[in-house]
Amino acid sequence: MKHIAKIAAFTAIFLIINLILCGFMPPDNGSSLDMWRSYHQKQSIDIAVIGSSLASCALPEEELAAATGETVALMATNAQSLDMSQIALETLLREHSPRYVILVMDLTNMTGKPYAKAQKAFYMQSCRRIPGRINPLTCCAT
After folding, report:
1. Reading across the β-sheet that carries 47-51, which strands appear in turn?
2. Residue 18 has what pLDDT?
3. How far apart are CA 95 and CA 139, in angstroms?
4. pLDDT at 49
5. Which of 21, 83, 106, 123 might form a disulfide with 114, Cβ 3.0–4.6 angstroms?
6. How many Cα atoms sit within 13 Å of 41 on the Cβ side?
7. Which are the contacts of 129, defined by CB distance < 8 A and separation ≥ 6?
8. Can you tell me the distance from the alpha carbon of 102 to that of 75, in angstroms, rounded to the nearest whole number?
9. How far is residue 42's CA from residue 31's CA, in Å, rounded to a whole number?
């Protein structure tokens, strides 16, 4: 009984400390929010790199821009699936006219099944920074 009371006290203290610390930490919106923020800051895009983390590792945005002299948009996130890459590509082509689009993905991410909740979150992140858009659930509808 004494042992259970110690475990319960430890758990309660841990949860209280965790809740307090969460108030001081910024929310983690994930790599897709960073990707879309960077994308929407660009006025024009000459080269777009779309895909999984392989794309961001193989073709870093700053290095590719310096090597080519072109405006580069890195539209890649960790474990980005083919359906998410399609969302990125459709958004890119709707809003810009890039000269080159490079798709870099691994076989696992290309053959995985689409996950509807992840697609919705990815859509919402893409819509979050578009000026004049009111409803983030419909702004990306095709």
Report:
1. 72-76, 47-51, 100-104
2. 85
3. 12
4. 94
5. 83
6. 10
7. 36, 37, 40
8. 10
9. 17
The per-residue pLDDT string of the chain (142 residues; one tens digit each, 9 = 90 and over) reads: 788 988 999 999 999 888 888 777 766 566 788 888 889 899 999 999 998 888 888 888 999 999 999 999 999 988 888 888 888 999 999 999 999 999 887 776 666 666 666 666 665 555 544 444 433 333 333 3
pLDDT at res. 117: 60
Following CA atoms 24, 30, 36, 42 in sequence, which dihedral angle do they give, to the nearest 10 degrees? Answer: 60
Tokens of 120: 């919705």
Residue 105 tokens, joined = 């993905």
| Residues 52-89: b if buried by 16+ CB within 10 A, e if exposed | bbebbeebebeebbeeeeebbbbbbbeebbebbbebbb
| Token reading at 21 | 């610390």
Integer CA distances (angstroms), 41 to 45, 74, 98, 107, 129, in order: 10, 12, 15, 31, 9
